[in-house]
Automatic annotation (TrEMBL):
Gene3D superfamilies: TATA-Binding Protein. GO terms for biological process: DNA-templated transcription initiation; embryo development ending in birth or egg hatching; transcription by RNA polymerase II. This is TATA box-binding protein-like 1. GO terms for cellular component: cytoplasm; nucleus. It comes from Sparus aurata (Gilthead sea bream). Its main location: cytoplasm. It holds the Pfam family TBP. CDD domains: TLF. Keywords: Cytoplasm, DNA-binding, Nucleus, Transcription, Transcription regulation. The keyword Transcription applies. SUPFAM superfamilies: TATA-box binding protein-like (SSF55945).
């Protein structure tokens, strides 16, 4: 990946968002009264439930749709979702774990160099857009991977994509473009 040395870039996954269905109606009031680590939000029509291991937060709707956030890997997201389904079963609901899907992955990565954002934007239009008055980073969208990369002048990047594989591929794809626009070292 790196043309000057053999160091690999560390891509740190900070959040994995996954959804699943219980295939049954959930009484939010019952979950709020009998469940643990629960926040009931009747004005929005959902319950927030937190698990300690794996550390995830779940948004639970009465329709049986559940969104889990906070996991740091796809496996951890699935384990957390299954554990949540088990908690709901123990509360007396006829939960059947189905339609599990990872919908979003957020990762961060640091380049070993700083980046000239204006040069990077000029060389990669219209894929890259930079509005310094609105946001300090260049937004770089890779349509076929459904990935979005925020590039900061420090060399720090955040990557959002539909799964871990697409996030890793997006970083590999943008690295040579960033390497071309690195700031000279002082």
């Amino acid at each position: 990946m790196d043309s000057s040395n053999d160091d690999a870039l560390d891509i740190i996954i900070t959040n994995v968002v996954a959804t699943f269905r219980t295939r049954c109606h959930l009484n939010l009031r019952t979950i709020a009264l009998e469940g643990t680590n629960v926040i009931y939000k009747p004005e929005v029509g959902k319950v927030l439930m937190k698990l300690r291991k794996p550390k995830i937060t779940a948004s639970i709707w009465s329709s049986g749709k559940i969104i889990c956030t906070g996991a740091t890997s796809e496996d951890e997201a699935k384990l957390g979702a299954r554990r949540l389904a088990r908690v709901l079963q123990k509360l007396g609901f006829k939960v059947r774990f189905s339609a599990f899907k990872v919908v979003n992955v957020l990762a961060v990565c640091s380049m070993p160099f700083a980046i000239r954002l204006i040069d990077f934007t000029k060389k990669n239009r219209p894929i890259a857009s930079y509005e310094p008055e609105l946001h300090p980073a260049v937004t770089y969208r890779i349509k076929h991977l459904k990935a979005t990369i925020q590039v900061f002048s420090t060399g720090s990047i955040t990557v959002t994509g539909p799964n871990v594989q697409n996030v890793a591929t997006a970083v590999e794809q943008v690295y040579p473009l960033l390497f071309e626009c690195q700031k000279p070292r002082n």
